[in-house]
Design brief:
single chain; 147 residues; mainly alpha; 7 helices
Length: 147
Amino acid sequence: MSGDIATIAQQLGAAVELTMNPAIPMEQRHQAFNQLEEFKENSPYGSQCGFHLVASSESPVVRHFGLKILEDVVKARWNTMVGEEKVFIKDSLMKLMSSGTGHLTVEHLFIKDALARIVVELVKREWPQQWPSLLQELDTLCRQGET
């Protein structure tokens, strides 16, 4: 399955780059955009591909798109997700905040902002009933340094 996720994520990354390239004809950019939107709305692999894009891409635009997928998945599907996927998202998000972003002075602000928006969406849905250790986990992250 991880090979499939890597392949899908690679295709998504290419579509993001195509969409953002002004040298590509508008019709092709529009088609790529529609494919991205279709994926965000309907794919069962949204969370896995989102984390893969954030972790594996050098392109800030592709990384941001991965975070946007995650935000949309949390907003639209959280209440219908199975428990294992919720735990996967929460654990992966905490790992990403711990070591998956650049230093505060190096990382693009829009990446940090997108990451914060996902945390806010999870807090709205999970804290304190389903995630009582959240504040302690965030405190631990803050003590690790400026990432």
